[in-house]
């Protein structure tokens, strides 16, 4: 059964980063999101996603180093939100 | 093959700057005393937000007239008298942000008077009227290497015989627009910058800065011996990890500096990866050169940093017992052993490499020599 | 006298009502798929104008725009207090050229982004003529604004141009020259960036006085 948080995060990734030809279900749970050639997402995309996540889940990511760790994969992101969020 | 640099040398007839510590000599004195101009300030000014390190000449919420106007007038008092902006004495204005703070202010209070300063051309036209400059005013804007572009363009105008003296005028004042932007990149955060420090979290500060230089073909005590530019075009906010971008300018100036005893003023904003790559590149090409950055005290003055920091270097070198300020705000360990944390005597050196970098992997550097 | 010859000329003059999304659909085949989603209208037009012009690490590029990334600026201001890092990055001059060249991973010897208005064209031309690189790309453009246009802080039209300037007259499309005069003649109005783009598109000759001399744009 799909984790609703994971599903929501994948939808947010597609919407926020305007990945028009990517379906949310195509995004893997445990592979690197950023820096891999599969989706062409880079650090700017990561930061743009952070803004959206901070708004939606009430988390706070303080530095670029922290964002790199939190956004290592969808699973890593879900774990970060669960441990930090006020609205997850 | 060495990438091309601009030669022959060009003279610096005058150079001055303004920072929150005051003029160039006062700022150098503050740096030598290890003082920090940065203070934790709400990132959005009166709109609040996280506290981030900023070095401001005045509160950053834009005013009418703009808050930077009295400061620029104060700086302009020191301009050598000349018909600036006329054909033989043109002006080159360099800035990254111009009056964008006024644009932000308009979106907050809807006072249309802010819009008179909201675009680069409107800001420069306003300054032309304030300072009585003629119409020969060229405007460059290339983020944090902008001042270097102004210096190189001025050099080319002089060597082509198209001008007798050129005024390069540079300024950048922090606004919520700019602070908010860097805060969104997560590099302007609650931590004070420590340029070239090998630590876990990188951070920058932002600062207000303004400066000018008058360049001439005449002989002067200090000269810009060589200048080099390069654009990596690898990523908007990151450098090539192999350091090739930094190497390009460093190699060019190392060639020009052969036989000289050099110290290096790097870009050194306090970010980790760029700081590491930059320090490593300079250590590679100038292994005996102490490396400093002053942004740990003054913050990053963005488009004006190249000229502000040139003015500071010249002020330090012109003092009776010249000492070069160390890297204020940084304690070890550092990325390389060449990082100078403390001030050092200038008398064993006869040249300096002054470098700046910008978004998009833009690099700029110049070789400053004593005549 | 300073002169260079025009090779590779391309001008984008889209309809006034073309949006960024419409330009993205029209031009997307010219750009890497993963890059085009983040490109601005100006970036797309500049990229289309540069299409077919191969640049190298020893080349220079002069880029002129009065208003630059107007829509990114508008949208970035709207994004506060949760400022968008992508829009911040995109709003900074010379973003349009960087969008294209970073997409290509194409380093340059020097990039000269100019701002300004009344005499922007001749300032850009002088920068190009003083360049030491044999090959200089002369690029310019604007994108149509929305609320900033209502305050005369944006261009009413979107356009872009790119020309390659070299010292070689062989097979050149046209010629740009500047002849300094001493004493400097009184300046005449300088063509606007839009007028210059139209002159490039229609191979219209231009001549005016400014920057202490005489400018001539002529065609083969």
Task: List strands and helices in order, with pairings.
The complex is a heterotrimer of chains A (88), B (371) and C (220).
Chain A: H1 4-16, H2 43-57, H3 64-70, H4 74-84
Chain B: E1 10-19, E2 22-23, H1 24-32, E3 39-42, E4 51-55, H2 68-76, E5 91-94, H3 100-109, H4 120-131, E6 137-140, H5 146-159, E7 165-172, H6 176-184, E8 206-207, E9 209-216, E10 222-231, H7 244-256, E11 262-265, H8 272-285, E12 291-292, H9 295-298, H10 305-318, E13 323-324, E14 344-345, E15 351-358, E16 362-370
Parallel strand pairs in B: 4-8, 5-6, 5-7, 11-12, 11-15
Antiparallel strand pairs in B: 1-2, 1-9, 1-10, 3-4, 7-9, 10-16, 13-14, 15-16
Helix pairs in contact in B: 1-10, 7-8
Chain C: E1 2-12, H1 20-27, H2 33-36, H3 41-50, E2 60-64, H4 70-79, H5 85-91, H6 95-104, E3 110-115, H7 120-129, E4 136-142, H8 147-150, E5 159-166, E6 174-180, H9 193-202, E7 206-210, E8 213-219
Helix pairs in contact in C: 1-3, 3-6, 4-5
Question: Can you offer a commentary on this structure?
Answer:
Chain A is an all-alpha fold and about 90 residues long. Chain A is about 50% helix and about 0% strand. Chain A has one domain (about 5-20, about 30-85): Orthogonal Bundle (Non-ribosomal Peptide Synthetase Peptidyl Carrier Protein, Chain A). Chain A contains four helices and no strands. In chain A, helix 1 packs across helix 4. The mean pLDDT of chain B is about 95. With about 375 residues, chain B is of the alpha/beta class. In chain B, strands 1, 2, 5, 6, 7, 9, 10, 11, 12, 15 and 16 form an eleven-stranded mixed sheet that branches. Chain B has helices spanning about 25-30, 70-75, 100-110, 120-130, 145-160, 175-185, 245-255, 270-285, 295-300, 305-320; strands at about 10-20, 20-25, 40, 50-55, 90-95, 135-140, 165-170, 205, 210-215, 220-230, 260-265, 290, 325, 345, 350-360, 360-370. The relative contact order of chain C is 0.22. Chain C has about 220 residues and is α+β, with helices and mostly antiparallel strands. In chain C, a hairpin with a 2-residue loop joins strand 7 and strand 8 (about 215-220). In chain C, helix 1 (about 20-25) runs parallel beside helix 3 and helix 4 (about 70-80) packs antiparallel against helix 5 (about 85-90). In chain C, about 35% of the residues lie in helices and about 25% in strands. Chain C has one domain: Thiolase/Chalcone synthase (Peroxisomal Thiolase, Chain A, domain 1), CATH 3.40.47. Strand 6 of chain B pairs antiparallel with strand 3 of chain C.
């Amino acid at each position: 059964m799909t984790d609703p948080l994971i599903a929501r995060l994948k939808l947010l990734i597609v919407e926020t980063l305007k990945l028009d030809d990517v379906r949310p279900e195509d995004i893997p749970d445990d592979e690197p999101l950023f820096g891999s050639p599969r989706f062409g997402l880079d650090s700017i995309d990561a930061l743009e996603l952070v803004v959206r996540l901070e708004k939606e889940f009430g988390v706070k990511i303080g530095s670029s180093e922290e964002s790199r760790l939190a956004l290592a994969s969808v699973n890593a992101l879900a774990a970060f939100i669960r441990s930090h969020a006020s609205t997850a | 093959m060495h990438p091309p640099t601009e030669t022959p040398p060009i003279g610096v007839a005058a150079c001055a700057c303004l920072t929150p510590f005051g003029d160039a000599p006062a700022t150098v004195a503050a740096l030598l005393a290890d003082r920090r101009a940065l203070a934790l300030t709400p990132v959005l000014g009166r709109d609040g937000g996280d506290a981030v390190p900023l070095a401001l000449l005045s509160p950053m919420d834009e005013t009418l007239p703009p808050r930077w106007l009295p400061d620029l007038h104060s700086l302009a008092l020191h301009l050598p008298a000349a018909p600036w902006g006329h054909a033989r004495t043109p002006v080159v204005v360099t800035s990254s942000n111009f009056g964008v703070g006024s644009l932000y202010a308009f979106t907050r209070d809807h006072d249309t008077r802010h819009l008179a300063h909201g675009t680069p051309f409107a800001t420069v036209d306003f300054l032309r009227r304030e300072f009585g400059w003629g119409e020969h005013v060229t405007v460059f804007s290339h983020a944090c290497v902008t001042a270097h572009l102004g210096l190189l363009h001025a050099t080319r105008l002089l060597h082509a015989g198209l001008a007798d003296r050129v005024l390069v005028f540079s300024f950048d004042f922090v606004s919520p627009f700019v602070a908010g932007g860097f805060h969104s990149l997560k590099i302007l955060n609650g931590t004070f910058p420590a340029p070239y420090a090998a630590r876990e979290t990188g951070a920058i500060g932002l600062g207000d800065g303004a400066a000018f230089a008058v360049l001439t073909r005449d002989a002067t005590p200090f000269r810009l011996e060589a200048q080099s530019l390069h654009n990596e075009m690898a990523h908007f906010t990151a450098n090539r990890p192999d350091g090739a971008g930094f190497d390009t300018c460093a190699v060019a100036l190392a060639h020009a500096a052969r036989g000289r005893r050099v110290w290096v003023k790097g870009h050194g904003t306090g970010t980790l990866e760029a700081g590491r790559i930059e320090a490593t590149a300079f250590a590679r090409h100038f292994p005996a050169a102490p490396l400093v950055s002053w942004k740990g005290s003054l913050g990053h003055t963005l488009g004006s940093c190249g000229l502000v920091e040139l003015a500071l270097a010249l002020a330090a070198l012109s003092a009776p017992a010249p000492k070069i300020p160390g890297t204020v705000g940084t304690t070890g360990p550092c990325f390389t052993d060449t990082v100078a944390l403390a001030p050092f005597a200038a008398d064993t050196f006869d040249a300096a490499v002054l470098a700046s970098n910008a978004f998009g992997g833009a690099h700029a550097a110049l070789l400053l020599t004593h005549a | 006298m300073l002169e260079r010859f025009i090779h590779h000329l391309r001008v984008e003059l889209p309809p006034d009502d073309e949006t960024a999304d419409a330009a993205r659909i029209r031009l997307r085949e010219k750009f890497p798929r993963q890059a085009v989603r983040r490109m601005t209208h100006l970036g797309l037009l500049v990229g289309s104008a540069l299409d077919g012009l191969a640049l190298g690490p020893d080349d220079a590029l002069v880029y002129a725009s009065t208003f630059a990334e107007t829509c990114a600026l508008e949208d970035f201001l709207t994004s506060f207090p949760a400022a968008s890092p992508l829009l911040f990055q995109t709003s900074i001059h010379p973003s349009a050229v960087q969008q294209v060249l970073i997409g290509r991973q194409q380093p340059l010897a020097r990039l000269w982004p100019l701002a300004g208005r009344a005499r922007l064209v001749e300032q850009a031309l002088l920068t190009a003529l003083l360049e030491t690189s044999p090959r200089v790309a002369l690029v310019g453009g604007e994108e149509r604004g929305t609320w900033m246009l209502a305050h005369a802080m944006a261009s009413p039209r979107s356009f872009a141009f790119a020309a390659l300037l070299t010292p070689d007259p062989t097979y050149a499309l046209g010629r740009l020259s500047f002849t300094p005069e001493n004493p400097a003649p009184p300046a005449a109005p300088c063509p606007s960036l839009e007028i210059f783009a139209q002159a490039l598109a229609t191979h219209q000759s231009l001549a005016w006085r400014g920057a202490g001399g005489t400018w001539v744009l002529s065609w083969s």
